[in-house]
Amino acid sequence: MDLEEFFNKLKGKEIVIVGLGNRLRGDDAAGLLIIERINNSKFKTICAESGLENYVGNIIKLNPDIILIVDAVILNEKAGNYRIFSSDFIQSSDILSHSLSFDIIRDLIESASNSKIYLLGIQPKTIGIGNEPTPEVLETVNILVKTINSL
Prior knowledge:
Strand content: 15-25%
CATH superfamily: HybD-like
Number of helices: 6
Helix content: 25-40%
Strand order of the largest sheet: 2-1-3-5-4
CATH architecture: 3-Layer(aba) Sandwich
Structural class: alpha/beta
CATH class: Alpha Beta
Number of domains: 1
Distance between the termini: 16 Å
CATH topology: Rossmann fold
Radius of gyration: 14 Å
Shape: globular
Largest sheet: 5 strands, mixed
């Protein structure tokens, strides 16, 4: 499913978009770049960088219907490809590389709210320290931002 279809299915829902990543690791910054460029007032945004666990309380206080986490994810696909996953599909050991297990964070949020969590994962080309985001991932970031801003 593409991003526009995803949002069309969720019309009327309160959505928080959370960007994850590390600006110093090339394409790992994709989630952060998207959050910085969203200018659609329909969505609340949180730039969590590499510490999603530090924002669990803030996310719960917002009481959204939907939480969309945006991050670079190894999909074993072409750089810049993206997929949307529901939280129950995600296995923390192989999807997110941030400090606290995604399973624990998901359980904390879902036990304290009625929110449904999704992950928008973007295939990186490089996540090496000191690298800049690649053209492939930047193109995807621009497309996704344009889609979100046009909703």
